[in-house]
Amino acid sequence: ECASHQQRIPSLLLPKILDYGKKQPSMQPNILPVLGARGQWLAAQNPDWDYVRIKPELLDWETGTRADRLALLAYLHRHNPQEAISRLDSTWATERAEERAMFVSALEPALSVQDQPFLESILSDRSKEVRQRAAMLLARIPGSALSQRMIQRAEQMLQWTAAVSGKLLLLRRGSSASLTVNLPEGYDDAMKRDGIEQRPVGNFKGGERAWWLFQILRAIPPTYWSAQWKEQPLAILEAASKTEWEDLLLSAWLEASLHYNAADWAAAILQRDPRRSEVMNAIRPERQEALLLEMLRGQCVPLHRHPVLALLRETRHIWSTELTRAVLATLRRHILASKDSTDYTLRSTLLEDIVRRIPHTMVQEVAAIRPEQNAERWNGTLDQMLIILQFRHDMLTALMKE
């Protein structure tokens, strides 16, 4: 996620992520682009993190260790994609399935349309995991042949009927938009080749035909449907809610929204179902705040039983003054109204997440939320919040003076 947005991971996480790369070589290609100059320097201080210091001219593709080959492939793929694919082709037939799968994953951080011919060629690989990873990457390449095949399948299963406005003089009533869902009729080799599994896995609730439709829809950017049907995501979700396949459609479009960073769709899904907190990662901070403010203006007490708490936990930015005040006002109402002693989730969220999102300049406003009544059992939590926030304030103030 960081690599796709050209971001670096926080410095405090560097040792953990470097250790993780040592234990999981297949993740090294994803780790290298997000280390930054500080991560490169830190890696040089520990021999266990040698995989970071890549010297392509010293690494041999055919005889190197697994870690060396992954590092070399990642480096070449970023700087010379054609050479990277050429190296893969030269030994592909003799590689073990485990290595083939890891090499495919190594292409993800710098994935481009140039990778499409190679990935298409391995959709018939003898390893199921290799086929699935190749299909996953092809689905992420805009306009790929696999994406077009998935769209062709889906268009036979989803029929959209646009809304019709009423005409008063002709006494004709209008009709709202509708969506008709037809499950796939059968499973074939072409579906298998494109990474569609025949039998449901995990916690999927539904039969095989529903499972096929789910996999097809999650492989298509949801923005395709809003463009094709000339409708806003919320209107499409509203129509989907009137079908018997609402949960399947919402779940598939949720995964697709995350996969393709479809912010408008993610926001619409949250408006339909605030419990789907995982889609927050696909929404920009300013849009997150607008959605959260709308919810906080409603009835959110008891706070620990309301879905807005999970959404607040998913935010990763320092909140605006407006959102912070809305959260503090809701927390104060919770303290005054709630006598539920099981609100430990809220307490831990305050100390582990919320206090880190509050601007450090708002120490006094946090202190002011403590009510005179019904606050005894909250004193410890509020005191800890103030200690953490005051520490952040003092530290950041001192750093700004440097």
Give unreliable regions as ranges: none
The spatial strand order of the largest sheet comes to 1-2
Overall mean confidence score, pLDDT: 89
| Class from helix and strand fractions | mainly alpha
Separation of the first and last Cα atoms: 32 Å
Provide the gyration radius in Å.
26 Å
Give the number of helices.
Answer: 21
Strand content: under 5%
Number of strands: 2
Biggest sheet details: 2 strands, antiparallel
Shape: flat
The amount of helix comes to: 40-55%
Q: Helices and strands, in N-to-C order?
A: HHHHHHHHHEEHHHHHHHHHHHH
Describe this structure in words.
There is one protein chain. The protein is mostly helical and 402 residues long. It is 54% helix and 2% strand. The chain contains 21 helices and 2 strands. It has a two-stranded antiparallel sheet. Helix 16 packs parallel to helix 18. The longest helix has 23 residues, at 379-401. The radius of gyration is 26 Å and the shape is flat.
